[in-house]
């Protein structure tokens, strides 16, 4: 399976995701944001980091990069797109995903391991997980507070487009298990066709028991299979 990782000035998780993909036997290529052509790809990843230093607004400048036109074309043709952290922010800026990521509720940068619950395992991103499975995943963001309008929220629930919600280690979804103030504890969403996933947690950091855990592995094995 072929993957491409888009790299922007300020990306700092691009190599992490490349290592994770290559570990899972993806044939990966790194694509600089000024390129105007994408390699043939089954999966395109927009990685985490601080594209353009998060000046103006997180993901706003990156969302206008040359390569984004090709990403949008690929997404509309059914290619799998994964946006992690800043990548999620960029996907909302491009309109490939609806909603926005606001400042964290405490107005501080958060970097810690949290728990999320799998809400839909009937997708190409999540089929190796179990529904309601609780994962321990790292977050590292300043603008991870997901918000959208009531009509879109209704659609997310009705069409089962919420991928993950923040929870505690027992799977309880409540205000105390919400690290950033996200609407309804939402940690990740799909588009209507479920070929695009945006998520704030970093599955690429949970690939090895020695340094963290392996809770991110099944996202990539789902894609590979």
CATH topology annotation? Rossmann fold
Report the portion of residues in β strands. Answer: 25-35%
Give the H and E element order. EHEEHEHEEEEHEEEH
Please count the beta strands (DSSP E, at least 2 residues each): 11
CATH superfamily: Class I glutamine amidotransferase (GATase) domain
Envelope shape: globular
Largest sheet: 9 strands, mixed
What is the terminal separation in angstroms?
Answer: 9 Å
Written description of the protein model:
Helix 2 links the parallel strand 3 and strand 4. The chain has one domain: Rossmann fold, CATH 3.40.50.880. Helices cover 21% and strands 26% of the residues.
Please outline the helices and strands:
Elements: E1 2-7, H1 14-23, E2 27-32, E3 43-46, H2 66-76, E4 80-84, H3 86-94, E5 100-102, E6 110-118, E7 134-141, E8 145-147, H4 150-158, E9 162-167, E10 186-190, E11 196-199, H5 217-224
Parallel strand pairs: 1-2, 1-3, 3-4, 4-11
Antiparallel strand pairs: 5-8, 6-7, 6-9, 9-10, 10-11
């Amino acid at each position: 399976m072929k993957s491409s990782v888009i790299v922007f000035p300020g990306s700092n998780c691009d190599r992490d995701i490349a290592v994770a993909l290559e570990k899972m036997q993806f044939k990966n290529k790194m694509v600089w944001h000024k390129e105007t052509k994408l390699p043939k790809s089954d999966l395109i990843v927009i990685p985490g980091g601080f594209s353009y230093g998060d000046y103006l607004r997180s993901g706003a400048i990156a969302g206008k990069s040359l390569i984004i036109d090709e990403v949008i074309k690929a997404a509309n043709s059914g290619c799998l797109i994964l946006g992690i952290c800043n990548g999620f922010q960029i996907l909302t800026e491009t309109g490939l995903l609806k909603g926005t990521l606001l400042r964290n509720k405490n107005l501080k940068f958060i970097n810690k391991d949290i728990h999320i619950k799998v809400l839909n395992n009937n997708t190409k991103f999540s089929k190796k997980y179990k529904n309601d499975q609780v994962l321990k995943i790292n977050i590292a963001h300043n603008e991870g507070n997901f918000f959208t309008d009531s009509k879109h929220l209704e659609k997310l629930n009705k069409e089962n487009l919420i991928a993950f919600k923040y929870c505690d280690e027992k799977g309880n979804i409540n205000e105390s298990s919400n690290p950033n103030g996200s609407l309804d504890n939402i940690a990740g969403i799909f588009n209507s066709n479920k070929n695009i996933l945006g998520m704030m947690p970093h599955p690429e950091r949970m690939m090895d028991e020695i340094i963290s855990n392996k809770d991110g592995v099944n996202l990539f094995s789902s894609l590979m299979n």
